[in-house]
Amino acid sequence: GVTRHYKFDIRLKNVTRLCKTKTIVTVNGKFPGPRVVAREGDRLVIKVVNHVSNNVSIHWHGIRQLQSGWADGPAYVTQCPIQTGQSYVYNFTITGQRGTLWWHAHISWMRATLYGPLIIYPQHNASYPFAKPHKEVPIIFGEWWNANTEAVINQALVTGAGPNVSDSYTINGLPGPLYNCSAKDTFKLKVKPGKTYMLRIINAALNDDLFFRIANHTMAVVEADALYVKPFETDIIVITPGQTTNVLLKTHHNPQQTTFVMVARPYFTGQGTFDNSTIAGILMYDDDHHNSPPSSSNNISIKNLSIPTLPPINSTSFVSNFTNKFRSLASVKFPANVPRNVDKHFFFTVGLGSNPCPKNQTCQGPTNSSKFAASVNNVSMILPNTALLQSYFFKKSNGLYTSDFPSVPLVSFNYTGTPPNNTNVSNGTKVVVLPFNTSVEVVMQDTSILGAESHPLHLHGYNFYVVGQGFGNFDPKNDPANYNLVDPVERNTVGVPSGGWVAIRFLADNPGVWLMHCHFDVHLSWGLRMAWIVLDGKLPNQKLLPPPADLPMC
Ligand code: C2O
């Protein structure tokens, strides 16, 4: 591999969307941020310089960071934030991974404007397990607030109410013609007839799973979270925040029209305010083989085009059907190394709500008090004021965290029927310590408090196999018999089904401190997160390397 250098200057920039101009935090003045491109085996050296008054840190979502946990990025977990005027060089090698990932800020809600694609091509002598597409196009979904997003979340945390929903969704930063005053900011994908395009789809939205469809076209899903899957055809994809999906789009040989509408809209099952507005973009056939004059392409009217329909906003059956189609390749070249024997079993409840709150703590639940909380096994995680990895590595825990994160919830519930109204949530900074090479199973159960709601759980530093999922209560006696240990999908972010559970397995072979959390930023802010400490192994390549000299201090 080679070494590739990037420089990320964190700068303010005025950007206009929906006819309002606001100042946003950007990388190099770009929104969405620049594309980072590498090949499997390359080293990335990315210097981040902070020229703004906000603290920042950048996470390379889905990169395994083998022995390089200092470069992972979540603020107060693997590093202290990069403060104004400071810089930090993220230095890591991409080992055994290729596909679509992305990078984003990992502090407060800064990722609303600080995000971009991270594309890893196969090694020079390697190819895709499918025919090489004619072109590859990143499609990155986001959310846009007219207000300052830091103000939105700060207000929500102070008042204890849910934050205001975004003013629009975006494709590659553009809201599209179904929003007021936004027709000129429409994403257009120009294609030629009879070709195959690979869309590298990334959901960078803060708080919503999304459905996506292109009128009159089907897609073949070939990759999820930078891991190849057995291809399957679909008209509609579902993607949670944090997930990436590569699809092959075959264009028509003789299209009946030159323009088709693509749309995305949320899948949402919770209660409270939500946004069911729609982003639209245009798939536009290159018509230079016809003799029509070039269309003045700026003001697209979609009035005469048909807008493809999407499932109802709360269509859990569609979502579970879709997610059940994912299978890893499990081939000789891309084997599925699913842990067969489990050393440590965990059962995590994930969800909202806490009532009553322990005295003197600000974790009151929604039923009789003013503040929301979210938790894993009734622990709503408080970030410490020094990075966990620093305090672990330098053996200065000083009460910063404790190693008693519960492996099962403190109070057992029946999650179906009437949801419990007492989750005894407490605030804390608790971790699970795992010896090197522990094989781990985690069953994550949606608590269904405040209505059944899906939660996209993301694990840093690892991919995991999704060995089972179901609705209602997980049944430890019967459900494991139905696990798929042959070709389960491998990924870094999985939607815990609304009103159900999901079981994952991974081998703890990467030493460091690794966050696991809901990738809805609103739930993350309310505490739906926990951390694993994976100890060093005995061999030199099983040890976390020392931190770089420029590691930020708190
Ligand atoms: Cu993409 Cu911890 O995040």
From TrEMBL:
Statement: the UniProt record of this protein carries the keyword Metal-binding: yes
Record's protein name: Laccase
Co-factor(s): Cu cation
CDD domains associated with the record: CuRO_1_LCC_plant (cd13849), CuRO_2_LCC_plant (cd13875), CuRO_3_LCC_plant (cd13897)
Main location: secreted
UniProt keyword annotations, A-Z: Apoplast, Copper, Glycoprotein, Lignin degradation, Metal-binding, Oxidoreductase, Repeat, Secreted
Source organism of the structure: Solanum verrucosum
Metal-binding found in the keyword field: yes
Subcellular location as annotated: Secreted, Extracellular space, Apoplast
Residues annotated as domain Plastocyanin-like: 11-123, 136-286, 413-536
GO molecular function: copper ion binding; hydroquinone:oxygen oxidoreductase activity
Function: Lignin degradation and detoxification of lignin-derived products.
NCBIfam families: laccase
Listed EC numbers: 1.10.3.2
GO annotations of cellular component type: apoplast
PROSITE patterns: MULTICOPPER_OXIDASE1 (PS00079), MULTICOPPER_OXIDASE2 (PS00080)
Cofactor: how and how many bound: Binds 4 Cu cations per monomer.
GO annotation terms (biological process): lignin catabolic process
Reaction equations catalysed: 4 hydroquinone + O2 = 4 benzosemiquinone + 2 H2O
Similarity section: Belongs to the multicopper oxidase family.
